[in-house]
Write a structure and sequence with these properties.
Mean pLDDT: 82
Strand order of the largest sheet: 1-3-2
Largest sheet: 3 strands, antiparallel
Keywords: Coiled coil
Length: about 240
Amino acid sequence: MIHDGLDLEHRILQRILDWHAETDRPEGGLSLFWSDAPGFFDLAAAPGEDADRCWHRLQDTLRAMLQKRLIAGTVTVMEVRDLQVGPRGVLVLKELEITALNNRKRLLEVEQTELRAAQKAAHDERDAVFRGKQELVQAQKSLAEVQGRLRDLRDDLDAGRDALRAEQDALAVERDKVSRALDEERAHFERLLAERQAEAAAEQRAAGRWRTAGLLSLLAGGLAALLAVSQSGLI
């Protein structure tokens, strides 16, 4: 296993250790020719660098690691032989593993903190949703009550309209009755008036006749008196 982010020495140590951990390996250390070594240690050539220069760069790193007793073995011009991780290399890998574990632990702690925050946010959101549902249920209940009152008011209004319409119909009937009664009274009054006018006219005609008869009687009496006087020789 090659750890990302580690320098070349750390990658070499881990690669040698992984190679020894694999099964069906021969006794002794790791041996590689110069043409295979850079690829085995995952050492890619730098831009503009040939394979020979890449191998020399790997050689320099391996010799430095031998001097620091990170590894044991032999490094020649053409190959490396019997490479093994030295005691100090094991300590370095252990320190790296501990560091990696600590880093992983910190990452896990950060993830746990984020997870707890997310759980709290989810819990708060769930509580908010629950409160929202309760408020929605209460609002629906209030709406149902308002709708019930509106239905009652509408029924009362419809009943009032029906009563008003019935009262208007009754008033119309009564108005018709009163109108007919007034028409009948008016016709009766007109008949009485016509009769009274006819009677008055008849009375006037009769009075005229009586006055004429009275005058005639007076004239007749006057003439008779005049005749009597004339006959008596007074005139």
